[in-house]
Amino acid sequence: MARVTVEDCIDKVDNRFELVLLASHRARQISQGAPITIDRDNDKNPVVALREIADETLSPDDLKEDLIHSLQKHVEVDEPEQDAAAVAEGQLTSRSEDEEDMPETIAFDQMSEEELLAGIEGLVPPEKSDDY
Fold first, then answer.
1. Which residue has the higher pLDDT, 132 or 42?
2. Which residues form a coiled coil (predicted)?
3. Where are the alpha helices (DSSP H) in the chain?
4. Which residue has the higher pLDDT, 27 or 129?
5. What count of other Cβ atoms lies within 10 Å of the Cβ of residue 51?
6. Contact partners, residue 92, CB within 8 Å, separation at least 6
7. What is the pTM of this model?
8. pLDDT tens digit sequence for 50-71
9. CATH superfamily, domain at 6-71
């Protein structure tokens, strides 16, 4: 087969940069042992990937989804929420009896503006050294 060019694939994938991402991802899959869908003809993996895209033996949308899935580091899992009526009745609680005695509000120390300014004025600047 003649050389594969970007023009052979651009009608399948509109964006040239996306084409490069998809073809490189497919070439990595081939190098990791994924089966190819066309004859190799002594071509290297990137050329085989481009030929697969040009011949439409692989769907660009499937390649894109697979690329996104391979780049995900954290998969969010939806956990079921507790039933509001059961929580209101006290049937489902995550707090122990010891925690129920503790207040739910968190109190922070309060500092006036004058105390803050006095504390800032009392700070000592760091000594100069030749390292900086």
1. 42
2. none
3. 6-9, 16-31, 45-54, 60-71, 84-89, 97-100, 113-121
4. 27
5. 23
6. 82, 83, 86
7. 0.54
8. 999 999 898 889 999 999 888 8
9. RNA polymerase subunit, RPB6/omega (3.90.940.10)
